[in-house]
Design brief:
This protein has one helix at residues 123-128, and strands at residues 5-13, 25-35, 41-52, 57-63, 71-72, 77-86, 90-100, 106-117. By secondary structure, the chain is mainly beta. The chain starts with a strand and ends with a helix.
Amino acid sequence: MTNGIRVRAAAQLVPDETDVDRPLYVFSYRIRLTNEGGEAATLESRHWIIVDANGERRDVRGPGVVGQFPRLDPGESFEYTSRCPLATSWGTMEGSYRFRRPDGAAFDVVVGRFFLAQTAPPIVQQMNA
């Protein structure tokens, strides 16, 4: 949690989109953002650091998430699902979200490292744990 914004993340392999002969491993990940603080905040951008099993690092930056810029009032949550392709059978993701308060103050919310792994339990189990 950073500045009242809690981040939960979970990932799982998408077998139908994975082709081990290429090699291409596609992982689906779900993020839940919850405002547990006392002030509203709007998500403006994201920064992901993706590292595959070979140590190859990729930085991904962009506006919003899945084409949206959710505003979270106190007590509200926003959840979305996206995908991450890798050339290896496992990797990690971590990063941050840039949020802005109604008074214009910006802050970064840290997303702790989570694993993209074939052996991960289904996302639903992970998010409800």
